[in-house]
Amino acid sequence: MPDKNLTDWVDKTTKLARSNEAQFLCFNVGECAPLFAINVFKVLEVVTRGKHKIEHVVNCHPYVEGMINHRAGIIPVVNIARWLGEDAGGDNKLVVCEFNKIPVAFLTSREAIIERRNWNEIYESSYLKETGKIVGLIKRQKDEETTLIYILDVEALLDEVFPANSKASQAAVDVNFRIINNKYILVAEDSPVARKHIRSGLESVGISNFTIFNNGQELLDYLEKADIDNIGLIITDLEMPETSGFVVTKKVKEDSRTRHIPILIHSSMSGENNIREAMDLGADGFIAKTNIPEFVKQVDKFVLRNTGNNRGKRRKQCPYRLFQVIGAFSFKIYIRKNGL
Description:
The protein has 340 residues and is α/β, with parallel strands linked by helices. Helix content is 33%, strand content 31%. The chain has helices spanning 6-15, 80-84, 126-129, 154-161, 163-171, 192-204, 216-225, 245-254, 272-280, 292-305, 320-338, and strands at residues 21-28, 35-39, 43-48, 64-70, 73-79, 93-99, 102-118, 134-142, 145-152, 178-180, 184-188, 210-213, 231-236, 263-267, 285-288, 313-315.
């Protein structure tokens, strides 16, 4: 990536989002492996392995090579070849990334290249998605030869290598908290792992009236024929095949029928430029993936913001531990005072 005029380059690249385009950093993870890709907005830098000594850690995940001391902090190094089941070899590059505000480095080989594509040029494969590692395909034409580049499902990687993060986030949700929502919630998300976390987060607070679409275009197509009055919230990822979350936000907010519907961005591309661009397009909120407690809090805020007879309400829960401590008699007084 360019060192000169970095700020201008980042701003220019961010603006690609408005035209449903993205840039992907593509790299090998072994001597004979194909090219794999991640969105450039998740990349902090690409450095040679020799610049950072990898310190091995005992009892770590088998896919974690160790830790490095980087300007972004003490960060783990993940052996992507091992995760993908590829033969490792020539791992002389470190791709340092940030996902959900958490830095992580990937071992790769050979020089990285950048490919620019419109999201409607990204191909989906239900077969590859079943592997839990690939979310899309890029066709690359070079010297009259077509090769495929595989877009990694980073959410799946992080969930497998660092499962404690997801488990801790789920455990932090108040089991007594419920959101009563009479309107429908629409979700656009291409990652199976992220869809699982969204479903779990919504159901954990009692929400069942939601639909999850595989990409932004499916959500937009649904809006064309939907009863808009029954839709209370849209939750969307940013990077998706066919139509990105940026374009979903732009189109929803430009349409007089739908511009009143709150949009919550739910993405691992949590850099400041992405947040700013999404908010400039009209998004009402932004939450990094895997932060389930904050996700629930944001959903609650937008449900309560709706007006009319179908306004969402929060149901107060009786604190069970309080019942144990002060006894039934005092608990009755507590109920009267607090209107439970």
